[in-house]
Amino acid sequence: MADPAFAVAAVDRDQPYLSGLNPEQKRAVLATEGPVLVLAGAGTGKTRVLTTRLAHLVASGKTTPFGLLAVTFTNKAAREMAERVGALLGRPTEGMWIGTFHAIAARILRRHAELVGLKSTFTILDTDDQIRLVKQVLEAHDIDEKRWPARLVLSLIERWKDRGLGPDMVPREDDQSLGPRRVVDLYRAYQERLLTLNAADFSDLLLHCLRLFTAHPDVLGEYQNRFRYILVDEYQDSNVAQHLWLRLLAQAHRNLACVGDDDQSIYGWRGAEVGNILRFERDFAGAEVIRLERNYRSTGHILGAAAGLIAHNAGRLGKTLWTEGDAGEKVTIRGVWDETEEARQVGEEIEAGHRAGAALASFAILVRTGAQTRAFEERLITIAVPYRVVGGLRFYERQEIRDAIAYLRVIAQPDDDLAFERIYNTPRRGLGDSALAVLHTIGRARVCSLSRAAEIVVETDELSPQRRTSLRRLVESFRRWRGAAESIPAAEVAALVLEESGYTAMLQADKSPTAPGRLENLQELVRAVAEFARLAEFLEHVSLVMDAATGNGADMVNIMTVHGAKGLEFHTVFLPGWEDGIFPHQMALDEKGNAGLEEERRLAHVALTRAKVRARLYFAGRRLVHGQWQTNLPSRFLAELPAEHVERQDSFGQTLGNAGRPNHGMRRGDHHRVIAAPAPIAYQLNPAADGFLPGNRVFHQKFGYGRVRAAEGNRLDIVFDKAGEKKVMAEFVQKA
Ligand code: ATP
Ligand code: MG
Q: How much is the pTM?
């Protein structure tokens, strides 16, 4: 047999794409047959190995692109991988299947939808649709949604789906009862409803595929034959259903290559099973496990800091990482006064770096929670530095923020119909389209705003008593809030509105994984308002910010959550908010205890290892929470970073002795607000133009025929033949 070293050298000549790889990476590329697991730390070239492997499989003639299936974690990663493979091969990769688990499963399912009881045109439901459907199921089963929120039931169903369990497979001990019903019965009913609607939710894409494959071996066989080689990135974040799906597809050829890092498993809260990667050798007998230890991404200090941090986790395989790169700059930890100062300092450094020639895209601000982006967005807008929020919406574009701002707009500007329409039934208060139609009719007839129309209509019987009460409550609330806006600070008005409108309660009752983040966004909004004395000033600011936010061009600073940054790398990474309660996040600690803390630590490790050259950690001594300054302790993770790899700085960027805990440098109670001046509120009300007189015989759309008893402008008292005496609007009445 040929000397393997010689074989590798010979291959290099013919296959230039291999030339840059180290021996282990080459081995991982060339071990094309049989199951392979590349288990290696961040930045060791796992993704690069996968890309090269795809190119190699085609270039060496082992298969055409048609025989390849590659699974990536995001659609963006899929696009990039396809481009790189194309570049390595010098031609496009048509026919290769590359995408996320969901995208690929959907593609398969569309072709065979009939076999699982769907039509190929099936709809893929989003979370809102799912919730609506679960609500219907709860209703049909007489389950009190107040006690058992739809979101909660849905999340129980989702966890089963993550594990590949259909309603018939749920173990009894996993089930629980909701009053007289069992959750599994609701699950079954939910699945039945989905089929009737010709719809599937995201997890169904995989579940249906699993059923399809098991029930129709011929179909499975077709895909097993087709996909000679299967490759999976970020395997540590796959769930059980995905694992089963892969196992079925890879059964025939057994050429499954997975890459991952147990220290970067950060989706446990969404059902990911780090166990998949730890069990790989057992599940795929004879698997070759390749470890990559050389890190190509980060400097020595960054790597050392990250390694020291993750070493505090107990449940891990443990690995060595080294780099031939420089030790580089130490990771800096800087304590600042508050979040505004944090954003200011980050903005300043980006500006200076950019002036010195660095591309904006080489900077990333990685936040633990979505609400943290706000301060940075505003700062970057202020200093006119373009940015993008990767994998999410800009702060002021988020649904809950738009809703809250709509309330504030209606307070400050009662004629703002767009804002009124947005919130008149959010949270739900039983005011549907028909009530809105009534308001529109009045608005058109009187040339007045919807708010004004609402004020008018609640004095009449146009709406059913229930709707009228509900609308009256809203009208009265707005009156009260407008009064408050004249006497208390804008931020307090905002907090009051969120509370009294039921918006906060709506999100608190919401058990979906996104709800806590949305509540945090609302708190952050109140903080944003606190920077202004008057509502009108804040609203003015928002419209300017929204306008400025349409930056274009490719070179922009990246702002994203740490979760969203997985797999990516940047020259300079800013990591704000390393405070206990934020990072580690309080919820993870409260709900999952030590397991939660370990997942947070892996997340912190992912965050640090995104940096190539510079990592800057910040903690603020205080943050505004519910309008109150709250003092935070520096994150416990900061203390876990090995002293030799970090430089602690004070709030001015001066180095502190290593022993010196950074001083928060806070002043208490130095925050003051200007009391809002009263904002003039004026309605434009056109005088009545209809000539109804007492005694007129009239016809009303809803109440039928009647006779006018009294007329006051456009408000008529009518004695209806059938409905009795009612107050109605002239707009809805015709002379009979
Ligand atoms: P993560 O765990 O964060 O996903 P990874 O293991 O997938 O990291 P890659 O993103 O593939 O790592 O590689 C990290 C960086 O190192 C990339 O910039 C990549 O181009 C570079 N790199 C990888 N292997 C080599 C090599 N042999 N020579 C030079 N650079 C390399
Ligand atoms: Mg990667």
A: 0.79
